[in-house]
Structures are given as C-alpha cells and as structure tokens.
Write a structure and sequence with these properties.
Chain A: It comes from Umezawaea endophytica. Chain A: Pfam families: RsbRD_N (PF14361), STAS (PF01740). The complex is a heterodimer. Chain A is built from eleven helices and five strands; from the N terminus they run ααααααββαβαβαβαα. In chain A, β2, α7 and β3 form a beta-alpha-beta unit. In chain A, about 30% of the residues are buried. Chain A is an alpha/beta fold. Chain A is rod-shaped and about 100 Å long. The N terminus of chain A is likely disordered. Chain B has a single domain, classed as Transcription Regulator spoIIAA (2-Layer Sandwich). Chain B has a five-stranded mixed sheet with strand order 1-2-3-4-5, with helices on both faces. In chain B, β2, α1 and β3 form a beta-alpha-beta unit. Chain B is globular. The model of chain B has no long low-confidence stretch (mean pLDDT about 85). The chains are: A alpha/beta, B alpha/beta. The interface between A and B is medium-sized, with 18 and 20 residues.
Chain lengths: ~290, ~130
C-alpha cells in the first residue's frame, strides 16, 4: 500500500514539488489560531519535519496507524503533543494544527479536474484525521504523566519531619489527609524517630482542613505505633471546627495528649524531658 | 530448633533476639525466661528486637505473655528497638502490647528499669 506509492502517486508528487509553499501556508494557517504563543520559526521547524516524514506515507489511507511505516510520524507527533501539553495548549489546538494541513492541500488541488487525484486527496484527508486523533491520545497520556509526577511531588513535599529540639520531632501536616498520605506520614515519622533517637513526636494538624473518622483512625494508629517503639506522640493544632467535628463523630483520643498549639506541645515535650524554659533574668527572681 | 540466649546484667535479664523466631523457639524462650527469672531473682527483663524484621500475631502476643510471666515474679518488662515496619504491623494486627513498656534502644530501656527500680527503693542495677 505504501510501497507502491513512490512511483506515480500524483498527490505525493504534487506535495513533494510544492513542499516549501505548503509548509509556509500551513504555518500561516496555524500561527493565527495560536496567537503568538509559539514563534513562527518554531512552527516552521516542527511542521517541516512532520511534512517530510508525511511524504512517504501520503499515499496510504492511514488505516493501520500503529504499523511500522508510521513509526517515525507517530514519535514526531507524540513529541509535538507532549511539548504542547507542557506549554498549556489545549488538545484541540494541537489536533487542529494537524487538520489545518487538509485545507492547505485542498486549496492546492482545487480546480484540477482529476478524479484519481480527488480520490487520493480524500484518503490523505482520512490519514490526517487519524494523525489528529493520535495527537489527542498523546496529549492525554502526557497530561496523565504530568499529573502523576505532580501528585508524587506533592506527597513528598507536604510531609516533612522536622527536628524542634534535641529528642523532639514535629510533623506539620497541611492540606487534605487521605489514607495514602497518612501512611507516608506514619512511615516517615517512625523512621525519623529511629534515626534521630527521639523520644517525642508532635503531629501538628493546624493546616488540616477536615478530619473524618478514617483520618482520626490513622492518626491514632500512628500514635500507637510510635508508642510501641518507645516514643510518645502529641497531637497539636486542632482547630475549633475540627474539635467540634471530632466530638460530634464521637472519636475518642483516649490517653493521647492533645494540645491547642505547636508551642504548647513543644513545652509539654520539654517538660516531660525535664527541661524548663526560663526567660533570662527571671531565674534569680524565682 | 534455635534457642534465644538470655544474658544477666546485674538485676536485669537481657533477651536479644537475633534469629527468625519460630513458634517453637518462642515457647522455649518463655519457659527459659520463667526459670531464669525465678533462679536469679531479676527485677527487670529487656527484650531487644532491633534485629527482628518480621512479626506475626503469635510473636506479638509473646511480648504480652512474657510481661505477664515477669510480673508474677515482680519484674518489669521493656521491649526495645522495635522497627517502624514491625510497629505498623502490630498496630494493623490490633496488638497494642497492653502493659509492656517500650523504649527506642537498649540504653533507654535500661534507664527505664533503673528509674522504676529507684522508685521502688531498689538500688539501681545491683543484684539483690
């Protein structure tokens, strides 16, 4: 199908001999829709590359786009789509860049009274449709990759374990807690306890917007696990609304120490360690 | 079957678990320990599990059992060096070890026993 093309395929010959004019017209057609978000030179380079790899397959009808003949074209479109996705282009903008070539080709063959050529243009247009859909797929895949990367980064970023004092660690939790995050927090905190040999841990939930029974359950599990390892956990920064929710849900924190603020929790931990914080000069007065 | 050695340091018995525990070794350890406490009159037992990577509910219950046995001889039990993964497993299994004390490492565990001993008017780590 593709092999017989090179020789005697009218459309391919027409495309080849008019390469420069076609690419220029294509770039012009697309540049107006993208309104200066990408440079003409960039488009020119991308489209010329696409066009060159499109030529050998122009005689095909694009029925088997996953085939070997289209490998180069596929990877080019994939790259284009991915880079567009990262630049915040919408998928229809990327796809219509491909479709724009149709119009350019139609204008080229317009007025030529040749039934054979008409048929070839028709199947070429089907091929372009298939390629446009390919960019859609690549776009969706690229976006999914971005989302996955970001959620992983978020998971890492939002769960730092910080050392407040010799033997006192704190985990300031921010955002929404779900099972996966609480699991990460739990593991990170317990590992940090072993590494630093700390006997106190403070879980600060000032930045947590909502607490439900499941989240409370996870927090309790973390505290109990820390206790098993020989460390004491304090929960601090419970906001008024959250306190109401906790009571309304009937969650029991049992003998787990809870404090209003991180400062109170730190003072509590220090006192348990036998450290007293005194302002300079007050020592004599006391 | 491998047996877990029980070492005596002053008035404290040190059980350091360095092997993969089988149910048989756990039962043997409980017997050995009961005999050793009664023979030495130790006032504290430290179980070091820093080398233990895998636990099941049977081993989880072992700590509580040992603690109960020791209590009959008026000795306190401290479990030291539990790894995070082990702690998480025990919590997920719903085992909280009840009255067993825990510490991050051996040194802190010994200090806890020392403090308890002092509160009760014993003289530190000296044997009675």
């Amino acid at each position: 199908m593709v092999g017989e093309a090179e020789h005697g395929h009218r459309l391919t010959e027409l495309l080849r001999s008019n390469t420069d004019a076609l690419v220029a017209a294509w770039v012009e057609a697309v540049a107006t829709t993208l309104r200066g978000r990408t440079t003409g030179a960039e488009l020119e380079r991308d489209f010329r590359e696409l066009f060159t790899s499109l030529l050998p397959v122009a005689s095909g009808d694009g029925r088997d786009l996953s085939g070997h003949a289209y490998a180069e074209l596929r990877s080019l479109l994939g790259d284009l789509s991915r880079s567009r996705a990262r630049q915040n282009f919408s998928p229809s903008e990327t796809a219509s860049s491909v479709f724009a070539l149709k119009r350019v080709v139609f204008e080229l063959v317009n007025g030529q009274d040749d039934a054979e050529l008409f048929r070839q243009v028709l199947s070429f247009s089907t091929l372009l449709d298939g390629l446009g859909l390919l960019t859609f797929e690549a776009y969706a895949r690229a976006r999914e990759e971005i989302i996955k990367e970001q959620s992983e980064q978020l998971l890492e970023l939002t769960t730092p374990v910080v050392k407040l004092w010799e033997g006192v660690l704190a985990v300031p939790l921010v955002g929404t807690l779900d099972s996966a995050r609480t699991q990460v927090v739990m593991e990170k905190l317990l590992e940090a306890l072993v590494e630093t040999g700390s006997e106190h841990a403070i879980i600060d939930i000032t930045g947590v917007l909502a607490v439900d029974t499941q989240v409370a359950q996870h927090l309790l599990k973390t505290v109990v696990a820390a206790r098993l390892m020989g460390a004491e956990c304090t929960i601090s920064g419970i906001r008024p609304q959250i306190a109401q929710t906790i009571v309304a849900l009937g969650i029991e924190f049992g003998d787990i120490a809870t404090k209003a603020t991180l400062a109170d929790a730190l003072r509590h931990a220090l006192r348990r360690d036998g450290v007293e914080v005194v302002r300079k000069g007050e020592r004599g007065a006391l | 079957m491998e047996r877990v050695p029980i070492l005596k340091i002053g008035g404290v018995l040190l059980v350091s678990i360095q092997i993969d525990l089988q149910d048989q070794s756990v039962l043997a350890l409980q017997e050995d320990l009961a005999e050793k406490i009664s023979a030495t009159g130790a006032h504290g037992v430290v179980i070091d599990i820093s080398a233990v990577e895998i636990v099941d509910s049977f081993i989880g219950r072992m700590f509580a059992t040992i603690a109960s046995i020791s209590r009959l001889f008026d000795a306190d039990t401290v479990v030291v060096g539990m790894r995070p993964a082990v702690a998480i497993t025990l919590v997920e299994l719903g085992l909280t070890l009840g009255g067993v004390r825990t510490a991050l490492d051996l040194e802190r565990g010994m200090r806890i026993l020392e403090n308890i001993g002092r509160e009760r008017g014993r003289t530190g780590l000296e044997a009675r």
